[in-house]
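hey so i finally got around to running the thing on that chain from the lab meeting. sorry it took forever, my laptop kept dying and i had to restart like 3 times. anyway pasting the input first so we r on the same page abt which one it is
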Amino acid sequence: MRKKKVAYGHEERVNPSLKAGERRLLQAGVEGLRRNLVEVDAKGNRTLLEAEVVKEAVAEITEVGTKVESRVQPLDGQKDLTISNPTLVVEEEKGCIRP
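ok and heres what got predicted. didnt touch it at all, straight out
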C-alpha cells in the first residue's frame, strides 16, 4: 500500500475593484492524499488493485485586479494646473509723425 500526495490546482478570479496588477489570496491551496493498493508479483511487476482518495485537494484561489485609475494631477512637476488664455495688449504711441 502506498500513499501519494495530490497537487492542488490554481484558480484566478478577476476583481474589478482591485487595482490592475494587484493580487489577493482568497483561499490557500491544500494538497490532497491518495492511497494506492499495489500488488507486486515475483518478477517485480506492479499492478494497481485499488485507488482511494483519502483527502481531496483544495484549490488555491487568487483574485486578480483589473481596475485602472485615471490621474487628474501629473505625477511630477506642478500639481495645480490652471488654464489661461494669453491677452494681446496694443499700445498706441502719441506724438507726431515726421514725413
